[in-house]
């Protein structure tokens, strides 16, 4: 007999108290689909995606008697199908330096992600430089220096309160002169004053284009997966501010609510370049749709 479904989404439909001892079959009827939809919304998939996923699962199965396992695997397949097109590592170009602009709200894990990425690229034989572009947060600059040390990568800083665009310009000039492969530019994440932030990012982009008209080559948006549907709002906001080319989802360790990733993939189709799975330097993984779907479904 199958072990009771205790964890993941299905614990909430079938109960986690050991009642499901041996593969009951349930009719996939309206009530069942409704509970499924509710559970998906609770897991942060958002109403639109939850409705679509539920409808796809009902197709060809409605009115049939399914086991827990069959329903689980149908859901996992559906999630995998949605997520597969967005699972793409950060593309690496021949272009030197490749300029990666990193955006996101404070606390999303930007600093940590930059440190982890720097370490991975370095391990992959790339030379890396970091520009601490959040010049208004002394603590952020210090943290980035700590991560730079850990990764063994130089971090360029500027005095507190100085112009981030000017730092970005200097960093790209230097990275170009030194033949660095990859320059990552951190940016401020103060969404409280959106107009200022927009102007600041626009200026950084304008100024680095004086050095390299094709820069930035990637604009990474870092999102905290535990913020649920807020992540959707953040994508909408940052897409208006910058030409976001891909996402990194942090804090996927210890959250049962990764459903927002499905909503993001379904809605925006932006590549997920990596996921953060902890606070240590190696805790950054490629996004694997099947693993993700299995973990989400439980
Ligand atoms: P920033 O303000 O966007 O630069 O965010 P930080 O990089 O300083 O991260 C904010 C907090 O989130 C820190 O305590 C990090 O250790 C933590 N953090 C970042 N990424 C992850 C992750 O993938 N998993 C976990 N558990 N914590 C993370």
TrEMBL record:
Residues 97-298 form the SRP54-type proteins GTP-binding domain. It is found in: Cell inner membrane; Cell membrane; Cytoplasm. Its EC number is 3.6.5.4. It catalyses: GTP + H2O = GDP + phosphate + H(+). Its main location: membrane. Residues 96-243 form the AAA+ ATPase domain. Keywords: Cell membrane, Cytoplasm, GTP-binding, Hydrolase, Membrane, Nucleotide-binding, Receptor. GTP binds at residues 104-111, 186-190, 250-253. Part of the signal recognition particle protein translocation system, which is composed of SRP and FtsY. SRP is a ribonucleoprotein composed of Ffh and a 4.5S RNA molecule. Belongs to the GTP-binding SRP family. FtsY subfamily. This is Signal recognition particle receptor FtsY. It comes from Pseudogemmobacter lacusdianii. The chain holds residues 64 to 361 of 364 of the full protein.
């Amino acid at each position: 007999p199958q072990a009771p479904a205790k964890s993941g989404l299905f614990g909430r439909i079938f109960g986690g108290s050991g009642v499901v001892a041996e593969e009951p079959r349930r009719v996939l009827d309206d009530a069942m689909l409704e509970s499924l939809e509710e559970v998906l919304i609770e897991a942060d998939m958002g109403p639109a995606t939850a409705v679509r996923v539920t409808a796809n699962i009902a197709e060809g199965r409605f009115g049939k008697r399914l086991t827990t396992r069959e329903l689980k695997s149908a859901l996992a397949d559906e999630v995998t199908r949605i997520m597969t097109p967005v699972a793409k590592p950060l593309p690496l170009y021949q272009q030197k330096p490749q300029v990666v602009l990193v955006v996101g709200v404070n606390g999303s894990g930007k600093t940590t992600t930059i440190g982890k990425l720097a370490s991975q690229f370095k391990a992959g034989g790339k030379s890396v430089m970091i520009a601490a572009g959040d010049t208004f947060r002394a603590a952020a600059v210090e943290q980035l220096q700590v991560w730079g040390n850990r990764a063994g990568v130089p971090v360029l800083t500027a005095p507190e309160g100085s112009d981030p665009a000017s730092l970005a310009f200097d960093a790209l000039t230097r990275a170009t002169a030194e033949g660095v492969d990859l320059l990552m530019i951190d940016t401020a994440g103060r969404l409280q004053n959106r107009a200022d932030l927009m102007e600041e990012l626009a200026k950084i982009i304008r100024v680095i284009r004086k050095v390299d008209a094709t820069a930035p080559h990637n604009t990474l948006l870092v999102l905290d997966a535990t913020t649920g549907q807020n992540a959707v709002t953040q994508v909408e906001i940052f897409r208006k501010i910058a030409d976001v080319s891909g996402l990194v989802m942090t804090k996927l360790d210890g959250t049962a609510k990764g459903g927002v990733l499905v909503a993001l993939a379904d809605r925006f189709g932006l590549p997920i370049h990596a996921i953060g799975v902890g606070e240590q330097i190696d805790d950054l993984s490629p996004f694997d749709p099947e693993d993700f779907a299995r973990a989400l479904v439980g």
